[in-house]
Amino acid sequence: MMEQKISLTNSLQNDSPEIFKLLQSYSKQMSAEEVFSGNLTIDGVFTLKNHKRSKFKKLEEGAFLSLKGFLGELSDYSLLLKADQNILGNKNTAQMFPMLERKIPFQCLYSELVKEYEVSVRFIEKYLELYKTVPNIPIPLAIYSYDDEYKGKILTALEESVPKFVFEEIITITRNDSFGVMKYFYPSAPFRVMDVRSRDPRAELFWGSNNSIIFSWCDLLIESVLIGFLPGTKHFAIQGTALDPQNLLLSGGFSDLGSLVSISELSEEVALESFVYCIQKIAKSSLLLLDLKIENSSMKEERKSYLIGKINSYIEKKLESTSKEYGCSIPKPIKKFLENDTESILKNYNCLT
């Protein structure tokens, strides 16, 4: 079995016991036996059409466990590579991932998981400190790393399945890396905007045409900004951000937090641009839900302008009220957004997404 070649390298419970205990105090589902278990063979899991690297299992009271990364036999992986995959409208997915996103088809790079784990833990620590509740994001519980033998077998399977120029890129990407699996706790359902677009009946039922989730995404953006984080910048335009339709949760949360960036790491100009970029990303993803049954292009443009104005107005008011409620200051670059003509700022950055 593949899982016999995998070992635990990071654990939230061991690395950050205080954060883990706080999370448990706010969410009793975090005390479920399966949250603690190191067993990667979990019964009753399901997958989502657009997320071939992840498996999910429902816990009590609406929470979920997730395993991100490949768990299976080598023969299963070879079949995945040979199948005519069509993810997010892209055919030949196995060939596109390395060239566009520098990711390995249906695998998770260990370095990718570590980066997401570390930035997520920093975010969660700040979030718990200010808001005293669990953020609506995937909580990373543990990282597991595959050994070199596993890596060699996967590379052999890839060499037999992709063109030479793609495989050469894969060799470059994996030269100083390995493959791994991350275990997460989801406080809410893992269904995303793109799952509704692809007509997943589970996602459609969960969403129930609840358009108020748009403002839940705005709330989480505001909460992120006030603890010093942005869920995306243009730097992640190719790899994807937490605000893309394949990552925005229908419960009002974000997922795939590798795109989280500390505002302090950005210049004021880039931070402001990135904040506007996040607003536009939310609007663009929201329209994929709102325009499901609309074919008239001029009507779509009108709705787009109206929605961006509505979101902008909501964020302006909520930023100030939330900062007062929690007694925290608005980061200087974001303050510029409030102090200036926000409509002009939005127009200046009209083509960000």
Short description:
The chain is an alpha+beta fold.
Q: Mind explaining what this structure looks like?
A:
By secondary structure, the chain is an alpha+beta fold. It folds into two domains: 2-186, no CATH class; 193-348, no CATH class. Helix content is 50%, strand content 14%. It has 15 helices and eleven strands. The chain has helices at 12-15, 17-26, 33-36, 74-82, 93-101, 110-131, 148-159, 164-174, 193-197, 201-207, 213-226, 268-290, 297-326, 332-339, 342-348; strands at residues 6-11, 46-48, 51-58, 64-68, 86-87, 90-91, 108-109, 139-146, 179-186, 229-230, 261-262. The strands form three sheets. Strands 1, 2, 3, 4, 7, 8 and 9 form a seven-stranded antiparallel β-sheet that branches. A two-stranded antiparallel sheet has the order 5-6. Strands 10-11 form a two-stranded antiparallel ribbon. Helix 12 packs across helix 13. The chain is globular and about 55 Å long.
Write the layout of secondary structure elements.
Blueprint: E1 6-11, H1 12-15, H2 17-26, H3 33-36, E2 46-48, E3 51-58, E4 64-68, H4 74-82, E5 86-87, E6 90-91, H5 93-101, E7 108-109, H6 110-131, E8 139-146, H7 148-159, H8 164-174, E9 179-186, H9 193-197, H10 201-207, H11 213-226, E10 229-230, E11 261-262, H12 268-290, H13 297-326, H14 332-339, H15 342-348
Antiparallel strand pairs: 1-8, 2-3, 3-4, 4-9, 5-6, 7-9, 8-9, 10-11
